[in-house]
Every structure is written in C-alpha cells, then in structure tokens.
Amino acid sequence: MNADDMHRTVQTLTDRAEITDLMDRYLRSLDDGVFDEEWARTFHTEDVTADMPIGTVHGRDALLDHVSRGMAMFDRTVHLSTNAVIEIDGDRATVRSAQLSTHVLADGSESVFISAGHADNELLRTANGWRISASALRVVWTQGTPPRLPDVAAAG
Fold first, then answer.
1. How far apart are CA 97 and CA 107, in angstroms?
2. CATH 3.10.450.50, domain 3-155, yes or no
3. Distance between CA atoms of residues 96 and 17, nearest Å
4. Domain chopping of the chain, boundaries
5. Is the dihedral of CA 77, 78, 82, 88 positive or negative?
6. Confidence band of 1 (pLDDT split at 50, 70, 90)
7. Cβ neighbourhood burial of 45 (10 Å; 0-12, 13-18, 19+)
8. Residues 54, 59, 62, 65: what is their CA dihedral angle, to the nearest 10 degrees?
9. Count of Cβ atoms closer than 10 Å to residue 144 Cβ
C-alpha cells in the first residue's frame, strides 16, 4: 500500500466514523427531546428534505417545527438503528439502516406505539462536518395505536 492509498483508506475510515457518530447522535437526540436551532444546525443542511410517515418537509426551519410538533405527541421514546450500510463518494454519502422506534404516548394513557422500518439518508460534507441533506423513513410494520396526527400533518 502506497502513501496515497493509505491516505484514502484513513480518510474513508474517518468519514465512516464521523457519519456513524452523526447518525447515532441524531437518533439519541430524538429521545432527549431538545429541539432548537442548534439541534437543527448540528444534524441538517439548511435545505434538508425529510420524508417521514407524518409528512414531507423542506428546509431546516420547517423540519425543526415538524419534528418538535411530532415528538410532542410522545412522553418518552427509544429509537434504535442497526445494519447501517454507508456509501461514501467524495463529499457525499448515503446511509441506509433498519430502525426500531418505541414511543409512549403523551396522552396520559401510557399506551405504547412501536414502528419498524428503513431509513435512507443522504449526507453532505460541510465546513462543519457531515450533515443530513435528505432523509426518508419507510415504515414496514407497526404495533399499537399511533397518536392522532391532524395538527402535525397540517403544520408540515
């Protein structure tokens, strides 16, 4: 292995570690429940597009509002991700992973809603590190009764 090959290998491994960390911290942040402008800037590009089960939004500000309203329907959550496949092409990357999300409804019932599916994310390398530029969550199955969505869907 020559010096150029070694540099490319180290860069690829560094990129993979940074991307994995970003995605893990993003899911953990959903459970922490603090959604503000810093949260949005930490994880997303300004022109992010997100296609979620409760609607599609364009732009970081719209996503922040959408996620804040959507997560307010839950008292507590646990989001898990596994089997991530990361593809890197220069300053762009894609991440596909399986997701399992458990939600306790905030309606006082202690009802649990579980969803499982696949997340497809596109990332861009920015001056501040990797950021999510597009995401799509495809639900494969659910268990339990989901919360009512009219207010959230109307806002998206």
1. 30
2. yes
3. 15
4. 3-155
5. positive
6. confident
7. buried
8. 90
9. 14
